[in-house]
Amino acid sequence: xxxxxxxxxxxxxxxxxxxxxxxxxxxxxxxxxxxxxxxxxxxxxxxxxxxxxxxxxxxxxxxxxxxxxxxxxxxxxxxxxxxxxxxxxxxxxxxxxxxxxxxxxxxxxxxxxxxxxxxxxxxxxxxxxxxxxxxxxxxxxxxxxxxxxxxxxxxxxxxxxxxxxxxxxxxxxxxxxxxxxxxxxxxxxxxxxxxxxxxxxxxxxxxxxx
Length: 210
What we know:
- By secondary structure, the protein is an alpha+beta fold.
- It has one domain (6-201).
- Helix content is 20%, strand content 20%.
- It contains 6 helices and 11 strands.
- It has a 4-stranded antiparallel sheet with strand order 3-4-11-10, with helices on one face. Strands 5-6-9 form a 3-stranded antiparallel sheet. A two-stranded antiparallel ribbon has the order 1-2.
- Strand 5 and strand 6 (94-102) form a beta hairpin.
């Protein structure tokens, strides 16, 4: 089983600005495309890129793709600032999100108006039992011009991740800004590209090769 490495991604702010050596170029290409389409470098600051096994993610994320080096999470703080909205899409029993980022230029030369209704994940904090239990609520579509980043990501092989089953009561479980380039592999097979099997079988955390 060939061992691969994580490599630095240039000029990106993240807790660990690294990705798997087989996917870093796909990220660079997507970042460039998003910058062209939105008019600003929206992927220059990430919530997460590669996460080493020595770092614990939130509960329920023990097998998150961020550990494989094949995933990244867009900075969700952009939604607080009005630069990112998420459309809820229920497919079968799973919930997915379509992410739109606001274009820097609002003269119509970049992006398109939103026609669907965004889902406001923060509405759960409005002290309304109904919105809390359903994990938020639909919000009026904001004005202006927006870019469908989920579609752009898909064109470069990056797949959105489904929300965890408990996302309605657990905000982090929504995973609404996480994208992974899985190459059709299972999570365990992807982890084996970075770690020996004994590192995955033991609770002792080890560092990934760099």
